[in-house]
Amino acid sequence: MNNPDWNHIRAFLATAETGSLSAGARKLGLTQPTLSRQVAALEADLGVLLFERLGRGLALTSAGHDLLNHSRTMGAAAEALSLAATGQAQAIEGTVRITASDVMSAYVLPPALHQLRRRAPRLTIDVVAANDIRDLMRREADIAIRHVRPDQPELITRLVRESHAHFYAASSYLERRGRPQSPEDMSRHDFVGFADLERSIEFMAPLGIHLTAQNFRIKSTSGLASWELVKQGFGICPMMTAVADPTPGIERLLPGLDPITFPIWLTTHRELHTSRRIRLVFDLLADFLCHI
User: Fold this and answer.
1) Cβ distance 129 to 109 under 8 Å?
2) What is the C-alpha to C-alpha distance for residues 140 and 59, in angstroms, rounded to an integer?
3) Are 26 and 152 in a shared domain?
């Protein structure tokens, strides 16, 4: 007796479960003559009759019934093998380095990282929380989230959205110093400085908020430290609505004032964009950032 071919066993199993050659052929995507030949070949290999014709249908013989359970076991094993092989082929592993500001890294990205953990549990994510612009060209990071568009032709950039910010302060500060009712009122308040003070002062002037260095008695190069100082009642600062609005003890100032808008750019190296793990993370971040 020859060792049976799996294709022939699969043809027998489909025919037995559907009750006819035509239905079995449709299930497997074969022509009926092809399926019939495969069933006949299995009968020849085993030296037994597996089906009897009853009118236009087929009925299993006793030998066919005996073989059916074994065939189902083999089918289940084959399906499990196929799924395992597919999982291995699609497994995404390795390290992806994402650079973003420290505030975004701490307050915005965690839900996206949870999604990545579920989608690719074997992937390692290295979050480079930095407020300077990391150089993707030197592979200091694989993916960057930035508020300015890089201009190097070797980089792929996607504008995922225009985000919003407003001015915020702690209730404890406002109860002590009063709640500003206009941009002019803001000019008499304390601000928590972050990054370049001259640029901050220039940025706020067109909004009607006229500040000097005297308004910034507390400052830090760290966005996280600056935001914590705001929460502790040291003064006012602009912050992303996605970060500030859910923060207990923080109030949005001048709700009638137009929001500050700024772009969120997602950037990666053109060569790295062909990597499956980079593409997965890039696409997931793009979708996530579109909805924050």
Assistant:
1) no
2) 68
3) no
CATH number at residue 214: 3.40.190.10
Residues 273, 145: one domain? yes
3-class SS shares of the chain: helix, strand, coil, % to 5 = 50, 25, 30
Above 70 in pLDDT, residue 286? yes
Identify whether the C-beta of residue 250 lies closer than 8 Å to the C-beta of residue 166. Answer: no
Q: What are phi and psi of 71, to 5 degrees?
A: -65, -40
Q: Which domain holds residue 187?
A: 164-259
Element (H, E) at 58: strand 57-60
- The DSSP bridge pattern shows strands 155-170 and 250-252 to be antiparallel
CA–CA gap between residue 43 and residue 164 (Å, rounded): 72
Report yes or no on 1 lying in a domain: no
How does pLDDT run across 55-112, given as a tens digit for each residue? 777 888 888 888 888 888 887 777 656 545 434 445 678 889 999 999 999 999 999 9
pLDDT tens digits for 204-251? Answer: 999 999 999 999 999 998 999 999 999 999 999 999 999 999 999 999
Q: Which contiguous run of DSSP H or E holds residue 94?
A: strand 94-100
- Residue 283's contacts (CB-CB under 8 Å, 6 or more residues apart) are none
Domain contains 191: yes
pLDDT in tens, 22-59: 888 888 888 888 988 988 888 888 888 988 877 777 88
Mean per-residue pLDDT for 127-132?
84
The fraction of the chain above a pLDDT of 70, given in percent, is: 90
CATH code of 78's domain: 1.10.10.10
Residue 262: φ, ψ to 5° = -150, 145
Contact 67, 46 (CB under 8 A): yes
Burial (Cβ within 10 Å: 0-12, 13-18, ≥19) of residue 242: middle
